[in-house]
Design a protein that fits this description.
60% of the residues lie in helices and 15% in strands. Helix 3 packs across helix 6.
Length: 314
């Protein structure tokens, strides 16, 4: 008899906890609908709190209000990307990239992925939503590669000519350690306001935190860090701007068709070309130019999807 009573009590506890959980979920407000998907108030709060936490900012009302608009835009982009990723019939496996990324984040807290999950839980953050957004971003990148790789044409002869000309003109190769903040432009008066807001935040919270907060580039996950880039892999426009910067300085917004990019020069160094493997340099140039074109296709494709999407604020 006692055993039966015990089973009944366990069932009731499980049933009630499930009902409470379901009730909590159902009480979530819909903040915005994106085609056939929604962004809930729970997702928005978690996005804001997670970003503030990972960037060592206080989770207070002032910071929440400051980041709310940007977080909502990022979630809208996430839903649009997710919708496209889910249309792919062949499964996209991003587990290796995801684990590598989570390991890097965990290392900052001197723990492993399991420990990182506990840190999230202890701070009232939804770890599953966090990793799902990162996984989706990796899958989106793979989607862009598969969709546009045949449209990426890199003229290796031109690159070889550049290298040969460079070898004749100078003996040294410069490398720049860069960070970026990249945003989409609406091509209206709001662009000036958001750029002014970003400039204010850079001065207030630093470039890395501002990148995590505002940048639409995947580099935002690492505070905008692009690592070391060879001078010959940069466009002439970008190189002219970078050459004028001192270490630690930040460029003015570089306006392109539908994006604005702000660059920070973290460091620079000179490499002796005679000690470098020119084939590796050539491949790096090709890789960087390919990524540049893929990012352009990614931004244009997302803009096209967004323009045709039904986005309703609730």
């Amino acid at each position: 008899l006692l055993a039966k009573i015990y089973k009944v009590i366990l069932f009731l506890i499980f049933f009630l906890s499930s009902e409470i959980h379901a009730l909590a979920k159902s009480s979530n407000k819909i903040v915005v609908s994106v085609n056939n998907q929604i962004v809930s108030s729970y997702e928005l709060k978690n996005k804001i709190k997670t970003t503030l936490f990972l960037n060592n900012q206080l989770i207070n009302q002032q910071n929440i209000d400051l980041f709310k608009k940007q977080a909502l835009q990022q979630l809208i982009d996430y839903k649009l990307k997710k919708n496209q990723v889910e249309k792919i019939t062949v499964p996209l496996n991003s587990d290796l990239q995801l684990n590598k990324y989570l390991t890097n984040v965990s290392n900052k807290y001197q723990t492993d992925i399991s420990g990182l999950k506990k840190i999230f839980t202890n701070n009232g953050l939804d770890f599953e939503l966090y990793i799902e957004e990162i996984r989706n971003e990796f899958n989106w990148q793979k989607l862009i590669v598969s969709k546009f790789k045949n449209k990426i044409n890199i003229d290796e002869r031109e690159i070889n000519n550049e290298l040969n000309k460079f070898m004749k003109e100078q003996s040294d190769l410069y490398q720049y350690k860069l960070s970026e903040i990249e945003i989409l432009l609406n091509n209206d008066e709001n662009d000036k306001s958001i750029l002014k807001e970003i400039d204010t935040q850079i001065n207030k919270i630093g470039f890395e935190r501002a990148a995590a907060k505002y940048s639409m580039s995947s580099s935002s996950l690492e505070g905008g860090n692009l690592g070391w880039i060879n001078s010959k892999s940069l466009t002439k426009e970008i190189l002219i701007i970078i050459e004028k910067l001192k270490i630690g300085e930040i460029s003015k917004p570089i306006i392109q068709t539908n994006t604005a990019t702000i660059l920070k020069l973290n460091d620079k160094k000179t490499l002796n070309v005679s000690n470098e493997n020119l084939d590796k340099i050539r491949q790096q140039i090709i890789k960087n130019k390919t990524n540049e074109l893929l990012n352009l296709h990614s931004n244009n494709y997302l803009s096209k999807i967004k323009n045709n999407a039904l986005i309703e604020l609730k």
